[in-house]
Hints:
By secondary structure, the protein is mostly beta strands. It has two domains: 8-84, Elongation Factor Tu (Ef-tu), domain 3, CATH 2.40.30.20; 103-194, Beta Barrel (Elongation Factor Tu (Ef-tu), domain 3). It has three helices and 13 strands. The strands form two sheets. Strands 4-3-7-1-2-6-5 form a seven-stranded antiparallel sheet. It has a six-stranded antiparallel sheet with strand order 11-10-13-8-9-12. A hairpin with a 2-residue loop joins strand 10 and strand 11 (142-145). The longest helix has 12 residues, at 183-194. The radius of gyration is 16 Å and the shape is globular.
Amino acid sequence: xxxxxxxxxxxxxxCEKQGSNSRFxxxxxxxxxxxxxxxxxxNGVCLTVEEVNDSQYRVTAIDETLQKTNLGGWQPGTVINIxxxxxxxxxxxxxxxxxxxxxxxxxxxxxxxxxxxxxxxxFDAAFAPLVIEKGSIAVNGISLTCxxxxxxxxxxxxxxxxxxxxxxxxxxPGDTVNIExxxxxxxxxxxxxxxx
Length: 196
């Protein structure tokens, strides 16, 4: 479980195909603090640390993950958002994020505002019931608030700190990001669907 508050960014150093899976070596400031079997969110996708080597560590993404997220497009030099799992004795500064991306969204627009940035994203309209005005959403693992919500798009605002400390600064129109909807909303939608 995560909070959507990004701890640092990392850099993909090496990509290796292993059957239908992909293995990634990632360098990050926290690499030396990690150990095998830890869960770490990468652009909002929970992956298990398999090996740590000095300032780098290795994770593997299975085909299912590669198909449903933007990890299939990673290459050496890709900047990614990193968050270690939530400690239950700490504050929940963002919202509950499972690290299980529901899909992807496409950046439609990026605007520089007076002191912040606004991004508009298009998502699959099948998820429309899960995106609500002033509701929480994780974009590349970042806990954000939706506004100007339509049937298949939403806008988020990025404060300068988040812009400077995550990979949102490199997101431009046409780019694909991972999105995870609020877990409580997903349970409510499932319950209502089963009552039909």
